[in-house]
């Protein structure tokens, strides 16, 4: 193969890889859950948004989430380089310059807030601003490297989207939207601690004081179990407050009991075997748990309207 051919092939392959690297900076997996919970907030809020306006609101939530993730990756690139799970991210791998990542994150942060303010209202824009700032400054800069409660407090950042979606429609914050915030807030610690249990060597090597590293597996599993028990009544609040019916309530009850069952299995597993099965399964189930709960909310409302109509 000639040198010219090699250069042309490299040129052809470079742009998709570069675009993919910049997309990866936005943490698309995290963004997908954020977008979904924000969309549900829009769908179940009383009132109506034009579909185009609703799409702009959800886009603003997505861009705000991606912006916060991008700045997080910029700030934590030294930690990411030390952990097997994150070492191949664009910044520690050297595929994106740090200044480019920071610039992208800041620009998307400003644009997402302005888009939300122009397309919906200042309450939703203010909540989106709070979510971005909380994730960047409270969780990433202040808590992540200093306390094993980083996930507990920092989890608030990921709990904002349904409240933002609700505010985009109504222009205010209600008890129902606060309940959805609380649901994600209480779900976050057992979700991330399950991951931390089987990735504890990574966090230990990077010097991140995650609970399994600081307090050990037994205390981590005990707190995970407590959180799943507390989560059960909170998951039922939308039904108990009359925002949705018992279709959602039944789904929430079954899923929450299953989540508790996973936590019990993790609790009973030997500490040295936790990361090889139970904790990994609990982590995966936790993703299904939250997605299914939020999917059940608009489905319940739709079924109720069909039965009433």
TrEMBL record:
<dbReference type="InterPro" id="IPR000537">
    <property type="entry name" value="UbiA_prenyltransferase"/>
</dbReference>
<feature type="transmembrane region" description="Helical">
    <location>
        <begin position="224"/>
        <end position="241"/>
    </location>
</feature>
<feature type="transmembrane region" description="Helical">
    <location>
        <begin position="150"/>
        <end position="169"/>
    </location>
</feature>
<keyword id="KW-0808">Transferase</keyword>
<feature type="transmembrane region" description="Helical">
    <location>
        <begin position="55"/>
        <end position="75"/>
    </location>
</feature>
<comment type="similarity">
    <text>Belongs to the UbiA prenyltransferase family. Protoheme IX farnesyltransferase subfamily.</text>
</comment>
<dbReference type="GO" id="GO:0008495">
    <property type="term" value="F:protoheme IX farnesyltransferase activity"/>
</dbReference>
<dbReference type="GO" id="GO:0048034">
    <property type="term" value="P:heme O biosynthetic process"/>
</dbReference>
<feature type="transmembrane region" description="Helical">
    <location>
        <begin position="247"/>
        <end position="270"/>
    </location>
</feature>
<dbReference type="InterPro" id="IPR006369">
    <property type="entry name" value="Protohaem_IX_farnesylTrfase"/>
</dbReference>
<keyword id="KW-1003">Cell membrane</keyword>
<feature type="transmembrane region" description="Helical">
    <location>
        <begin position="30"/>
        <end position="49"/>
    </location>
</feature>
<feature type="transmembrane region" description="Helical">
    <location>
        <begin position="96"/>
        <end position="116"/>
    </location>
</feature>
<keyword id="KW-0472">Membrane</keyword>
<keyword id="KW-0812">Transmembrane</keyword>
<feature type="transmembrane region" description="Helical">
    <location>
        <begin position="122"/>
        <end position="143"/>
    </location>
</feature>
<dbReference type="Pfam" id="PF01040">
    <property type="entry name" value="UbiA"/>
</dbReference>
<dbReference type="GO" id="GO:0005886">
    <property type="term" value="C:plasma membrane"/>
</dbReference>
<comment type="pathway">
    <text>Porphyrin-containing compound metabolism; heme O biosynthesis; heme O from protoheme: step 1/1.</text>
</comment>
<feature type="transmembrane region" description="Helical">
    <location>
        <begin position="175"/>
        <end position="198"/>
    </location>
</feature>
<feature type="transmembrane region" description="Helical">
    <location>
        <begin position="282"/>
        <end position="299"/>
    </location>
</feature>
<dbReference type="InterPro" id="IPR044878">
    <property type="entry name" value="UbiA_sf"/>
</dbReference>
<keyword id="KW-0350">Heme biosynthesis</keyword>
<comment type="function">
    <text>Converts heme B (protoheme IX) to heme O by substitution of the vinyl group on carbon 2 of heme B porphyrin ring with a hydroxyethyl farnesyl side group.</text>
</comment>
<protein>
    <recommendedName>
        <fullName>Protoheme IX farnesyltransferase</fullName>
        <ecNumber>2.5.1.141</ecNumber>
    </recommendedName>
</protein>
<keyword id="KW-1133">Transmembrane helix</keyword>
<dbReference type="InterPro" id="IPR030470">
    <property type="entry name" value="UbiA_prenylTrfase_CS"/>
</dbReference>
């Amino acid at each position: 193969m000639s040198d010219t051919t090699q250069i042309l092939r490299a040129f052809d392959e470079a742009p998709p890889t570069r675009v993919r690297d910049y997309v990866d900076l936005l943490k698309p997996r995290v963004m997908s859950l954020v977008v979904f919970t924000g969309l549900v907030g829009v769908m179940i809020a009383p009132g109506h948004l034009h579909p185009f306006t609703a799409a702009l609101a959800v886009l603003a939530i997505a861009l705000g989430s991606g912006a916060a993730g991008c700045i997080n990756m910029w700030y934590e690139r030294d930690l990411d380089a030390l952990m097997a799970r994150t070492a191949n991210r664009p910044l520690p791998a050297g595929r994106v310059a740090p200044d480019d990542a920071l610039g992208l994150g800041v620009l998307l942060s400003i644009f997402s807030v302005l888009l939300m303010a122009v397309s919906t209202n200042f309450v939703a824009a203010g909540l989106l601003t709070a979510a971005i700032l909380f994730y960047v400054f409270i969780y990433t800069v202040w808590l992540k490297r200093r306390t094993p409660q980083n996930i507990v407090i920092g989890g608030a950042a990921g709990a904002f989207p349904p409240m933002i979606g609700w505010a985009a429609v109504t222009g205010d914050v209600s008890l129902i939207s606060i309940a959805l915030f609380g649901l994600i807030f209480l779900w976050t610690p057992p979700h991330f601690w399950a991951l931390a249990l089987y990735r504890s060597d990574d966090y230990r090597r990077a010097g991140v004081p995650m609970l399994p590293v600081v307090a050990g597996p037994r205390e981590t599993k005990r707190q995970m179990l407590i959180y799943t028990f507390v989560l059960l009544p909170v998951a039922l609040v939308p039904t108990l407050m009359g925002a949705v019916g018992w279709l959602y309530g039944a789904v929430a009850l079954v899923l929450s009991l299953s989540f508790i069952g996973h936590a019990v299995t993790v609790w009973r597993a030997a500490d040295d075997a936790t990361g090889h099965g139970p904790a990994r399964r609990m982590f995966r189930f936790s993703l299904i748990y939250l997605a299914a709960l939020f999917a059940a909310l608009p489905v319940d409302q739709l079924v109720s309207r069909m039965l009433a109509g």
